């Protein structure tokens, strides 16, 4: 019997559009002899669009219309064998939708509540990975309350890390709200921006030289495998939103031009991180490699990485001999697997 799959796309985060792009690719690639796929686009307001509005949203990228609130629909989403929550960022990749699906008793693609939440929050990720011995840049946490009541102590934290440094909302993606702060005078604006988007903000020391950005894909549940390592190169000062989503701004290199021992360390550390954070299904694990010093730092773990046919994660597995359509099939089967 064909498995009935509910493909969720769009969602309430700043990465809504990115998700729609990924969903078009996945929808086209899931083999129809094995799966009966129903797409549902979630609007930015959190409403599940009915079929015609979903079709229009996938076509035009404009998710308009009414529909039920997420909570209503999940509670009545029985009848599906599995859900593919192809959603990025808050309310999609952070454990919230995973919690609802768990309550509803429906298997789903990707990490569960714990892995999703721990990987989404950059501070929590750093804490977990530190205890697993994974190398990371120096960092400090500040809360909105700290910034309001004790701004001098937040500035002091920045001084201790030194400039330039990065200021980031703890729970976002796609570089939204991230600033590179080169001088103390730029700090207030960077913190105001980050705190307008999140209650928790991470301050991060910058690597001593502009790092090379290398990424690896992980696939599996309790016996995960690592893809070959890939690299992104670009001219911009850092990998910001524009560079990520403007065609031609960044180049992908697969495999990354790395010494063999470095590539091996990347893959091993990524597997360690995947296990330490209790991830499942898939993750793309991103690193900074400082060529001048040979240092390697784990930057972040993305539990639902960009998933168009030209995105890094599927390209990495294509290089390992797993086609895009095989990859999505495997992911759904991993969701259905007994664990
Ligand atoms: P997101 O989850 O939004 O992708 P990242 O933590 O990956 O956020 O940061 C986005 C980009 O900012 C990185 O890909 C890199 O170019 C730059 N960056 C972030 N942190 C640092 C750092 N500590 N040192 C150097 N570059 C950094
Ligand atoms: Mg991210
Ligand atoms: Mg990133």
UniProtKB/TrEMBL annotation:
<dbReference type="GO" id="GO:0016874">
    <property type="term" value="F:ligase activity"/>
</dbReference>
<dbReference type="Pfam" id="PF07478">
    <property type="entry name" value="Dala_Dala_lig_C"/>
</dbReference>
<dbReference type="InterPro" id="IPR013815">
    <property type="entry name" value="ATP_grasp_subdomain_1"/>
</dbReference>
<protein>
    <recommendedName>
        <fullName>D-alanine--D-alanine ligase</fullName>
        <ecNumber>6.3.2.4</ecNumber>
    </recommendedName>
</protein>
<dbReference type="InterPro" id="IPR000291">
    <property type="entry name" value="D-Ala_lig_Van_CS"/>
</dbReference>
<keyword id="KW-0464">Manganese</keyword>
<keyword id="KW-0547">Nucleotide-binding</keyword>
<keyword id="KW-0573">Peptidoglycan synthesis</keyword>
<keyword id="KW-0460">Magnesium</keyword>
<dbReference type="Pfam" id="PF01820">
    <property type="entry name" value="Dala_Dala_lig_N"/>
</dbReference>
<dbReference type="InterPro" id="IPR011127">
    <property type="entry name" value="Dala_Dala_lig_N"/>
</dbReference>
<keyword id="KW-0963">Cytoplasm</keyword>
<keyword id="KW-0436">Ligase</keyword>
<dbReference type="InterPro" id="IPR016185">
    <property type="entry name" value="PreATP-grasp_dom_sf"/>
</dbReference>
<comment type="function">
    <text>Cell wall formation.</text>
</comment>
<keyword id="KW-0067">ATP-binding</keyword>
<comment type="pathway">
    <text>Cell wall biogenesis; peptidoglycan biosynthesis.</text>
</comment>
<feature type="domain" description="ATP-grasp">
    <location>
        <begin position="126"/>
        <end position="333"/>
    </location>
</feature>
<dbReference type="InterPro" id="IPR005905">
    <property type="entry name" value="D_ala_D_ala"/>
</dbReference>
<dbReference type="InterPro" id="IPR011095">
    <property type="entry name" value="Dala_Dala_lig_C"/>
</dbReference>
<keyword id="KW-0479">Metal-binding</keyword>
<dbReference type="InterPro" id="IPR011761">
    <property type="entry name" value="ATP-grasp"/>
</dbReference>
<comment type="similarity">
    <text>Belongs to the D-alanine--D-alanine ligase family.</text>
</comment>
<keyword id="KW-0133">Cell shape</keyword>
<keyword id="KW-0961">Cell wall biogenesis/degradation</keyword>
């Amino acid at each position: 019997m064909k498995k009935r799959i509910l493909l969720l796309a769009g969602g309430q985060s700043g990465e809504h559009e990115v998700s729609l792009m990924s969903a078009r690719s996945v929808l086209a690639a899931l083999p129809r002899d094995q799966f009966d796929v129903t797409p549902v686009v979630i609007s930015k307001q959190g409403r599940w669009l009915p079929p015609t509005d979903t079709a229009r949203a996938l076509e035009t990228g404009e998710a308009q219309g009414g529909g039920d609130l997420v909570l209503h629909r999940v509670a009545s989403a029985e009848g599906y064998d599995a859900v593919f929550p192809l959603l990025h960022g808050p309310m999609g990749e952070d454990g919230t939708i995973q919690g609802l699906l768990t309550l509803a008793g429906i298997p789903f693609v990707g990490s569960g509540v714990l892995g999703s939440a721990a990987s989404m929050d950059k501070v929590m990720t750093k804490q977990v990975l530190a205890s697993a011995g994974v190398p990371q840049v120096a960092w400090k946490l500040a809360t909105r309350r700290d910034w309001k009541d004790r701004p001098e102590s937040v500035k002091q934290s920045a001084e201790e890390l030194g400039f330039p440094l990065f200021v980031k909302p703890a729970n976002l993606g796609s570089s939204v709200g991230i600033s590179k702060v080169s001088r103390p005078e730029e700090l207030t604006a960077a913190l105001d921006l980050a705190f307008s988007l999140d209650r928790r903000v991470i301050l991060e020391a910058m690597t001593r030289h502009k790092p090379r950005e290398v990424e690896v894909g992980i696939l599996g549940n309790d016996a995960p495998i690592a893809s070959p390592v890939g690299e992104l190169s670009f001219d911009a000062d850092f990998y910001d939103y524009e560079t990520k989503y403007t065609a031609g701004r960044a180049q992908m290199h697969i495999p990354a031009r790395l010494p063999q021992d470095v590539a091996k360390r990347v893959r091993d550390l990524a597997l360690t991180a995947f296990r330490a954070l209790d991830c499942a299904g898939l993750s793309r694990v991103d690193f900074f490699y400082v060529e001048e010093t040979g240092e390697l730092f784990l930057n972040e773990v993305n539990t639902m990485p960009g998933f168009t046919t030209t995105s890094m994660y599927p390209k990495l597995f294509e290089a390992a001999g797993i086609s895009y359509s095989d990859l999505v099939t495997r992911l759904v089967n991993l969701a259905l697997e007994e664990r």
